[in-house]
Design a protein that fits this description.
This protein has 16 helices and 9 strands. By secondary structure, it is an alpha/beta fold. The strands form 3 sheets. The chain has a 4-stranded parallel β-sheet. A 3-stranded mixed β-sheet has the order 3-4-5. A two-stranded antiparallel ribbon has the order 8-9. The chain starts with a strand and ends in a 7-residue tail after the last strand.
């Protein structure tokens, strides 16, 4: 069976009747079109509780079920599983969890632990201990350094006045909320590029961004991968693909637009979900993505890691009247 992974924009176009031939072809039994938990994240990013929005979202789930037959690629942090899951049920679960990082702090963790008698007492002892632990000296030094202090204040507001694990948790939660809800990722990316002396205009359309990044880090005698945890949110291979994707964007290669004004909100969350899409799609034979910047970053990551999934950002489908022959013209513009 041929497995094909579609990004949400392609699915949305199909759902809205813009790619009828593609819909017809992909509904054949010989194709498996799984969705993933990142598709749920895409829908969640534009969700509100307005009744019209709910109706539109329900139609999204109906289309996902129709095209995927509820086959879902899900990350349980240890491995990627192909399961049969109702997308609406997964979405409702994510909606229930969406406020966890709001006002994120050790006190928030205490509230969660207090809800279970098995963890209530132990949780209080653990949290009280964490509150008193001072941060690594590197943080305080960075706040005291005139060159880095203003950037640290942007990234970790309030941490200078409370340089403890408690202060870090609270500041970290605020940073994640701002990066996912506002334009703070743009500032972080700008700080990274200016601090490393990266010429964004040079790397944006580079045919070899990895060489430019390596040359930059060679000056500082450390490797950019040291910034990323290997066991953060999935199996090692999944993390590697996701981290490589975000690393390219962070350093300016085909960097995503970040804007929260009128129209569709675009923040770090969108970049993260696109990175996860690239990782999920690597389990399939083909990945079709409509966003040109995501296409180029994914293609570069797959080439760097020597992955065999074919990735393309355009597809023209021709079907004979009886539907027995399918021709893919310019099927995928990527490389093996």
């Amino acid at each position: 069976m041929i497995t094909i992974y579609l990004d949400w924009s392609v699915m949305a176009q199909m759902k809205n009747g813009l790619l009828p031939d593609l819909v017809k072809v992909l509904q054949a039994e010989r194709f498996l079109i799984p969705y993933s938990t990142s598709h749920i994240g895409d829908i969640l990013s534009g969700y509100n509780k307005d009744s019209k929005q709910k109706s539109y979202t329900d139609s999204d789930f109906e289309f996902i079920t129709d095209i995927s037959r509820n086959y879902c690629l899900a990350n349980d942090s240890k491995k990627i599983n192909l399961t049969i899951s109702d997308p609406k049920e997964l979405f409702n679960k994510r909606v229930d969890e969406v406020d966890i990082l709001k006002d994120f702090s050790l006190d928030k963790i205490t509230e969660i632990l207090d809800g279970d008698e098995r963890t209530k007492e132990l949780g209080k002892i653990w949290v009280d201990l964490l509150k008193s632990i001072p941060l690594d000296k590197a943080f305080t030094d960075a706040f005291n350094n005139p060159e880095s202090s203003k950037h640290m204040e942007v990234l970790f507001p309030g941490l200078k006045d409370n340089p403890t694990i408690e202060g870090y948790f609270k500041s970290f939660g605020e940073m994640i909320n701002r990066m996912n809800g506002n334009e703070d990722y743009k500032e972080l990316r700008k700080v990274t590029q200016s601090g490393l002396g990266i010429n964004r205009d040079e790397i944006f359309n580079s045919s070899d961004p990895y060489s430019l990044i390596k040359k930059t880090y060679d000056k500082f005698k450390f490797h950019p991968k040291s910034f990323f945890q290997k066991d953060k949110y999935g199996p090692e291979w999944f993390n590697e693909i996701s981290n490589e994707y975000i690393r390219l964007d962070m350093h300016g290669y085909q960097e995503d637009r970040v804007k929260t004004g009128k129209g569709r909100k675009e923040t770090f969350k969108n970049t993260t979900e696109d990175a996860f899409h690239a990782a999920f799609a690597s389990t399939c034979n083909f990945y079709i993505v409509s966003d040109n910047r995501a296409y180029h970053k994914t293609l570069m990551v797959y080439e760097q890691l020597k992955l065999n999934t074919l990735v393309g950002n355009s597809i023209i489908v021709s079907v004979d009247p009886l539907g027995s022959t399918v021709t893919l013209v310019e099927p995928l513009n990527g490389k093996i």
